[in-house]
């Protein structure tokens, strides 16, 4: 017997032969876990028409044709951020996105946009399948118009009561977004919103958002009754995102605690909380409020002018950060999930990891309960 043959025999005494290695069992466990995941988010997947029930949350300046089509092409569901776009500009963006993907994607419209009706028409004329209505409670008339035009409506529910009202008004799915999220945020964390809403709102798919960076966390919300998840921050830092390299580099550097909400100095002058990375602009905003307050108290500014001055502070600031790359004087909107952005990855890799982390978590749980 040659040395090689001898060592092969010894090997089979200590290790099973390749055919005996339970590869098939591992594959089987993975397959089963995938099936479980598919089952858990099936309502979300069939509502969106995508392979994964993961929406790329609309982000002004960031969620344009390239990122949106990349997310949809990789099996997620991209959403164009209309923001302040005029109808003709939105039409151009939808056409360009449709040229880059044949998969479903949505459009996010801000309900207080003065040309909301015309924006809805643009979406319907172009057969956009899903419209997300953000930034306030939409009217029943808008929801009806969208549904009559053949598209599906997704609303934002900041509380259970409002969620139920939106469903009554005709919303066919909801996003519940916790205060961990990037951009404009409500006061309640996703951990609490999920417990307040998911057990009691089962008639439509509910997508969770805010602070999500890993698939095992997404899985835990699916198990609580969510139908899918919406992520923003991780996609903003993806390879396909058109955000300036300095903007993405700031995401890679940041920890969760760096993503803070804007602070209101005085009750008389409300500030809508926006979560973003602390920088020179966020510090200057505090000084600007203090100065404006002083001028109001001295009678140099009317109440209205003082409020306007505070509101105008951030005008153009998101563009400055995202497009120009000025991450010190612009608004670097980011969720607390920014701490989980460790490198700039392609969208497909981000989505792949999210699914595999959920699958791994399901397998580990099976193993724990089998012990
Ligand atoms: C840079 C940035 C811009 C955003 N702009 C919008 C927006 O225009 N409209 C909107 O509905 N949500 C906006 N969001 C929120 C996202 O759609 C999404 O719900 C949120 O990012 C989810 O939380 P995460 O950042 O922790 O993943 C924005 C978020 C970020 C980070």
From TrEMBL:
<keyword id="KW-0223">Dioxygenase</keyword>
<keyword id="KW-0288">FMN</keyword>
<dbReference type="GO" id="GO:0051213">
    <property type="term" value="F:dioxygenase activity"/>
</dbReference>
<keyword id="KW-0285">Flavoprotein</keyword>
<protein>
    <submittedName>
        <fullName>2-nitropropane dioxygenase NPD</fullName>
    </submittedName>
</protein>
<dbReference type="Pfam" id="PF03060">
    <property type="entry name" value="NMO"/>
</dbReference>
<dbReference type="InterPro" id="IPR013785">
    <property type="entry name" value="Aldolase_TIM"/>
</dbReference>
<dbReference type="GO" id="GO:0018580">
    <property type="term" value="F:nitronate monooxygenase activity"/>
</dbReference>
<keyword id="KW-0560">Oxidoreductase</keyword>
<dbReference type="InterPro" id="IPR004136">
    <property type="entry name" value="NMO"/>
</dbReference>
């Amino acid at each position: 017997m040659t040395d090689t043959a001898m060592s092969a025999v010894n090997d089979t005494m200590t290790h099973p032969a390749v055919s005996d290695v339970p590869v098939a069992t591992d594959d089987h466990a993975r397959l089963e876990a995938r099936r479980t995941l598919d089952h858990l988010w099936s309502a979300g997947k069939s509502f969106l028409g995508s392979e994964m029930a993961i929406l790329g949350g609309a982000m002004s300046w960031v969620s344009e044709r390239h990122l949106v089509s990349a997310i949809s092409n990789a099996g997620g569901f991209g959403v164009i951020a209309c923001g302040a776009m005029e109808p003709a500009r939105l039409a151009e963006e939808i056409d360009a996105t449709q040229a880059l993907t044949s998969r479903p994607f949505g459009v996010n419209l801000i309900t207080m946009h003065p040309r909301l009706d015309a924006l809805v028409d643009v979406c319907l004329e172009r057969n956009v399948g899903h419209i997300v209505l953000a930034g306030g409670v939409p009217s029943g008339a808008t929801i009806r118009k969208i549904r009559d035009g053949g598209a599906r409506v997704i609303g934002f529910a900041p509380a259970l009561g409002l969620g139920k009202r939106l469903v009554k008004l005709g919303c066919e799915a909801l996003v519940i977004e916790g205060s961990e999220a990037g951009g404009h945020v409500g006061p309640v964390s996703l951990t609490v919103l999920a417990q307040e809403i998911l057990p009691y709102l089962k008639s439509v798919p509910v997508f969770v958002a805010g602070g999500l960076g890993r698939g095992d966390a997404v899985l835990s919300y699916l198990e609580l009754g969510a139908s899918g998840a919406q992520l923003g921050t991780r996609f903003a830092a993806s390879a396909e995102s058109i955000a300036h390299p300095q903007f993405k580099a700031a995401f890679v550097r940041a920890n969760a605690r760096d993503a803070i909400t804007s602070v209101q100095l005085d009750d008389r002058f409300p500030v809508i909380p926006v979560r973003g990375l602390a920088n020179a602009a966020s510090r200057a905003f505090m000084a600007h409020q203090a100065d404006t307050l002083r001028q109001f108290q001295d009678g140099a500014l009317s109440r209205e002018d003082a409020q306007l001055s505070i509101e105008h502070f951030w005008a153009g600031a998101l563009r400055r950060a995202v497009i120009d790359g000025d991450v010190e004087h612009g608004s670097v909107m980011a969720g607390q999930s920014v701490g989980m952005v460790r490198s700039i990855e392609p969208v497909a890799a981000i989505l792949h990891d999210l699914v595999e982390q959920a699958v791994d978590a399901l397998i580990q749980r099976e193993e724990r309960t089998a012990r």
